[in-house]
């Protein structure tokens, strides 16, 4: 017997506090106000991470705290459980949760919303998991800032010029928006460090690689071409149709056989659904949980999913699923709230639909590209639109304030050159379940 029929509050459990889970919980509290229901969010973290600004954390413009929205503040009417959901029992209607001290608990639900997002997709390339780092967490962003500044410092005192050159070489793999933004931000940080040390900035070398034949296919040919020009004008060596075949602690090997001595490698080539999805025993598409147009799971009307973890049919592109973006995750979170509420008799269910709002991509000092509502912008105007968009989209006033002040600081002062060293080597590494070899 469910709690709905036993006269107890209806229990809605949301798994994951990313864009989709956060928006779903926030909208559900409004929709179900006045009903006898209890919303519980279970997440590995006590924050919602605003990932689009991670490159600016790596580049030293923003503090990691500014891009982490505290759940306790933003979702005051939601019960928060910090832990990892390892399995879902669809018969008993429970999720099994393990906390950070290995304490376990079964949490019961009448409706469950699965939004555990994605992890970095790794390929079976020798040395990749050991020697590269991704860009999905604040720890990884801080790692890049610290690593770049530390290697520049060490290089200055190195007596072996070949070791110094390796220390001053950064390889970024993945030239879609996240990898390109990371390269641009780290380049700007390196330029600042070079200026303060009277070092020729060309001595700090950046390679941006991609297996595809263009950068940032998401923004189209014209803006992609402008991005390529800007990257090259900043001395970034962009190599398309190129990837890695092997990595060691002090080098990478490209697929044309070239060996590049380096100690800093970013792997930003894409994501794969959270490992939780594989444990469910439910149908998947490209590793993501198959859902119906109303975001419920076939045969399980009380189970819903959205965001990067779900294969949501794209109504604008028949036969396809929506790409893993924050834009879709936010809207799917809102659709999840409507449809979960409808399943409880509040409002009517609706299939997921969306309108493409375009993309904004910040490329460091004075430059961005953006295509809001299909209008193609680049340069300083795009930069203003990009920063204004992030301030608008940031879902908490205190975070918005902190980011706005950091942007103002960036206008008035140079980037701070500090490697605080808060992140240990193991914290910045790929997690065990990070989808090695999952080539969907
Ligand atoms: C560097 C970077 C830049 C990006 N920039 C943009 C951009 O500019 N525009 C854009 O549209 N998209 C962007 N994206 C993509 C965007 O971040 C994702 O599409 C979006 O975060 C997906 O939201 P989500 O809620 O599905 O998952 P996530 O945001 O990944 O959140 C998943 C949540 O679930 C939690 N979780 C995972 N597994 C479990 C579990 N087993 N138990 C409990 N909790 C769990 C996680 O801790 C996390 O809180 C960017 C991504 C990155 C990495």
Automatic annotation (TrEMBL):
Family annotation (InterPro entries): FAD/NAD-bd_sf, FAD/NAD-binding_dom, NADH-Q_oxidoreductase
Keyword Oxidoreductase: yes
Domain FAD/NAD(P)-binding: residue ranges: 11-333
Domain of life: Bacteria
This protein's UniProt keywords: FAD, Flavoprotein, Oxidoreductase
Broad class of enzyme this protein falls into: oxidoreductase
Annotated EC: 1.6.5.-
Cofactor annotation: FAD
Entry's Gene Ontology molecular function annotations: oxidoreductase activity
Pfam family for this entry, one: Pyr_redox_2
Flavoprotein recorded as keyword: yes
Family indicated by similarity: Belongs to the NADH dehydrogenase family.
PANTHER family, per the entry: 64 KDA MITOCHONDRIAL NADH DEHYDROGENASE (EUROFUNG), APOPTOSIS-INDUCING FACTOR 1
Protein name stated in the entry: NAD(P)/FAD-dependent oxidoreductase
Origin species: Rhodococcus jostii
């Amino acid at each position: 017997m469910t709690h709905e029929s036993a006269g107890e509050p209806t229990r809605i459990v949301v798994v994951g506090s990313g864009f989709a889970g956060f928006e779903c919980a926030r909208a559900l509290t409004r929709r179900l106000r006045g009903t006898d229901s209890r919303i519980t969010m279970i997440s590995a973290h006590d924050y919602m991470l605003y990932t689009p600004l991670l490159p600016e954390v790596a580049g030293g413009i923003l503090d990691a705290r500014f891009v982490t929205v505290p759940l306790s503040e933003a979702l005051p009417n939601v019960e928060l459980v910090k832990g990892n959901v390892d399995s879902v029992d669809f018969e008993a209607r429970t999720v099994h949760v393990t906390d950070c001290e290995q304490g376990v608990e079964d949490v019961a639900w009448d409706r469950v919303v699965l939004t555990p997002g994605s992890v970095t997709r790794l390929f079976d390339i020798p040395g990749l998991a050991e020697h590269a780092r991704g860009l999905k967490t604040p720890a990884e962003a801080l790692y890049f800032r610290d690593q770049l500044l530390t290697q520049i410092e060490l290089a200055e005192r190195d007596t072996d010029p070949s070791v110094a050159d390796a220390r001053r070489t950064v390889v970024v793999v993945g030239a879609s928006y996240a990898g390109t933004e990371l390269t641009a931000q780290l380049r700007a940080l390196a330029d600042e460090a070079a200026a303060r040390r009277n070092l020729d900035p060309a001595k700090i070398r950046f390679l941006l690689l991609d297996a595809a034949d263009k950068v940032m296919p998401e923004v189209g040919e014209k803006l992609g071409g402008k991005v390529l020009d800007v990257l090259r004008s900043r001395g970034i060596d962009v190599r398309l149709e190129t990837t890695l075949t092997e990595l060691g602690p002090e080098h990478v090997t490209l697929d044309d056989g070239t060996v590049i001595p380096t100690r800093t490698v970013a792997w930003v080539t894409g994501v794969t659904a959270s490992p939780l999805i594989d444990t469910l025993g439910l149908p998947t598409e490209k590793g993501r949980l198959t859902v119906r147009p109303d975001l419920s799971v076939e045969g399980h009307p009380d189970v819903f999913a959205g965001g990067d973890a779900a294969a949501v049919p794209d109504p604008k592109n028949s036969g396809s699923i929506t790409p893993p973006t924050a834009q879709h995750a936010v809207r799917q979170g809102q659709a999840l709230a409507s449809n979960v509420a409808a399943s409880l008799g509040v409002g009517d269910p609706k299939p997921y639909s969306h309108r493409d709002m375009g993309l904004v991509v910040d490329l460091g000092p004075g430059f961005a590209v953006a295509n809001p509502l299909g209008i193609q912008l680049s340069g300083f105007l795009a930069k203003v639109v990009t920063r204004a968009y992030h301030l608008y989209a940031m879902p908490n006033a205190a975070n918005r304030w902190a980011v706005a002040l950091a942007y103002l600081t960036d206008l008035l002062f140079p980037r701070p050159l500090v490697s605080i060293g808060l992140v240990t080597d193991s914290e910045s590494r790929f997690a065990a379940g990070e989808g090695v070899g999952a080539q969907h």
